[in-house]
Design a protein that fits this description.
Elements (H helix, E strand, L loop, with lengths): L8 E5 L4 H12 L3 E6 L2 H11 L3 E5 L5 H15 L4 E4 L14 H29 L2 E6 L15 H11 L4 H5 L3 E7 L4
Parallel strand pairs: 1-2, 1-4, 2-3, 4-5, 5-6
Length: about 190
């Protein structure tokens, strides 16, 4: 396999399992060095051990500016920079309009929208320092779909908001972001 990502440093949120773990495996297979960010620290460390010298694990709560700053600092100090951020973290909680739990709804918004913003905010300065980079925000084909019934009202809202979250144009002008991509995984 071609090493399209040779010597690139990639930070992936929610990387311990599922799609994030698959992304990490693929990036390492193509020559990248990956930082696996996740609240599932033991699973993230196990994946880093599986992937070998090209992977490291970091505790990352995407709702915390401090853990984002720490993750980016880890990438820059341990590995030498940051080229790509993959905003992969996301949760789904059924939050009905009638009788729904506001705290559940806010948790979805914090993880799935604010977490994306915080990741971009933390990563952009490191990318500028390195001469540019890419931000990939994982989204969903369900973002534009309505849902019948009182369940899942928060899901399309946060996904739509995530798609609209674009890197700041000022960062683009400073040469930080070469492009921003929303990815919509198909089942």
């Amino acid at each position: 396999m071609a090493e399209r990502f040779a010597n690139k440093v990639i930070l992936i949120s929610r990387a311990a399992r599922g799609q994030g773990a698959d992304e990490a495996r693929r990036f390492v297979a193509e020559g990248a060095r990956v930082v696996l960010g996740d609240v599932l620290v033991e699973e993230s460390e196990a994946l880093a051990a599986e992937l070998g010298a090209h992977a490291s694990s970091i505790a990352l709560d995407v709702t915390s500016p401090e853990t984002w700053d720490h993750a980016v600092r880890t990438a820059t100090e341990r590995i030498g920079g940051l080229d790509v951020l993959v905003n992969n973290a996301g949760i789904v909680l059924g939050t009905p309009i009638i009788g729904g739990d506001v705290d559940d709804y806010l948790r979805v918004i914090m993880v799935n929208q604010v977490g994306v913003y915080l990741g971009m905010r933390a990563a952009a300065p490191a990318m500028i320092e390195r001469g540019g980079g890419s931000i990939v925000n994982i989204s969903s084909i369900s973002a534009g779909e309505g849902h019948r019934g009182p369940v899942q009202t928060s899901y399309p809202r946060w996904r739509r908001g995530r798609e609209r979250r674009k890197p700041d144009l000022r960062a683009r002008r400073r040469g930080c972001i070469s492009h921003k991509t929303d990815r919509h995984p198909q089942p």
